[in-house]
Amino acid sequence: MHKADLDLYTDYLLSTFGAATATGLSAMVDGEVSHDRITRFLSGQDFTSKDLWQQVKSMVRSVQNSEGVLIFDDTIQEKEWTAENELICWHYDHVSGRNVRGINLLNALYHSNGASIPVAFELVKKPIQYCDIESRQLKRKSAVTKNELMRAMIDTCIRNELKFRFVLMDGWFSATENFEFIAGKGRHFIAALKDNRLIAVTGEDRNNKRFLRVEDLDIPEQTLVRGWLKGYAKEVLVVRQVFTNKDGSTGR
């Protein structure tokens, strides 16, 4: 990896307002760097989390502390007109509520002492092709789930001696298996819960299998409630928070 080319290309991506191309970068620097040089740089190797970690390691070490948090989220870069393959394929977009064609990227962002630094990523690939029985259409699926990818990324961060106390994630990753995995690593989690998640608010209710849907909990906003999620052995704290979206709608 040529650091000068990496820095130049990164600055170009941050500053360009239109489509990012090697030709566009070359034109921006008045031809001092040829588009062929940039193309060779980008196609020379497959960049991984290991490459990212080598770039950010010293920066992370300067800000990390034991109260740091590791934030997981995935995003889709739409590629509507690109030919489909195991990387560029159909994924369900929870933001738009529809399937879109593009690249699905799982990110791990480290936050500590006011700094936020990406420390790991995984590209969601779907190499397995199969025929859907109902639609009779050819579809793709991954060999591993996003939850499995997230757990592997947490393991990698721990092996890299990254200091963090909490793992933050949205409702997509709030599976009991993930909770047990994180707790088993000596960390804590903060996760969004879906409305239909079941919880018992007293030990007696739990023992008698009297569970409520999370959406039926009658608690004021920002008030903590102790309880047990169905299927998860340890006690948790649940807090209700209402968010106002840009369009004026609310989410909980």
Question: Could you explain the architecture of this structure?
Answer:
The chain has 252 residues and is an alpha+beta fold. Helices cover 29% and strands 30% of the residues. The chain is built from 7 helices and 14 strands. The strands form 4 sheets. Strands 1, 2, 3, 4, 7 and 8 form a 6-stranded mixed β-sheet that branches. Helix 2 (22-28) crosses helix 3. It is globular, with a radius of gyration of 22 Å.
Q: Nutshell version of this structure?
A:
The protein has helices spanning 3-15, 22-28, 35-43, 49-63, 146-159, 176-184, 203-207, and strands at residues 69-78, 89-93, 98-112, 115-124, 128-131, 138-141, 166-169, 188-191, 198-200, 212-213, 224-229, 236-239, 243-244, 250-251.
Give the number of helices. 7
State the shape: globular
Helix content bin: 25-40%
Described by strand count, sense and barrel closure, the largest sheet is:
6 strands, mixed
Strand tally, please? 14
> Average pLDDT value?
91
Report the CATH topology name of the largest domain. Nucleotidyltransferase, domain 5
Secondary-structure arrangement, i.e. CATH architecture of the largest domain: 2-Layer Sandwich
Supply the CATH class of the largest domain.
Answer: Alpha Beta
Radius of gyration: 22 Å
Order of helices and strands: HHHHEEEEEEHEHEEHEEEEE
* Structural category: alpha+beta
Q: Proportion of β residues?
A: 25-35%
Instruction: Give the termini separation.
Output: 44 Å
